[in-house]
Amino acid sequence: MDNGKESIRIGVKKTGMRWQRARQTLDREDRPYADRLTRMAEAHATRGASAFDDPLEAAVYSVFLEMLKELERKKDRGEGIRAG
User: 24-35 b/e with 16+ CB inside 10 Å = b?
Assistant: First the structure.
């Protein structure tokens, strides 16, 4: 296994850990969203990290991918997107 890519995976995990610490500063009603964001960031860390040199970029890419998948599922179910 390539050490550089392994460090990207570790970097994504560390980013998630920092995001979890930041969660503690949020209002209680925002914390479940922070948890979800962290899970999204780590969702593709194992496979997707190999395409990136920056752990933050890998985490954000994973979040965007998961958000698009959620939007597509809502669209498929005929659910509208709520603002706010």
Answer: eeeeeeeeeebe
Tens digit of pLDDT per residue, the chain (84 long)?
455 566 888 999 999 999 999 999 999 999 999 999 999 998 887 777 778 889 999 999 999 999 999 999 988 888 876 665
Q: Could you give the C-alpha distances from 47 to 28, 29, 76, in angstroms and in order?
A: 32, 32, 26
Check if the beta carbon of residue 53 is closer than 8 Å to that of residue 8. yes
Phi first, then psi: what are they for 22, rounded to 5°?
A: -65, -30
- The crossing angle, in degrees rounded to 10, of helices 31-42 and 3-23 is 180
Model pTM score: 0.77
Delimit the domains of the chain by residue range.
3-75
Within 10 A of 58 (CB to CB), how many other CB atoms are there? 25
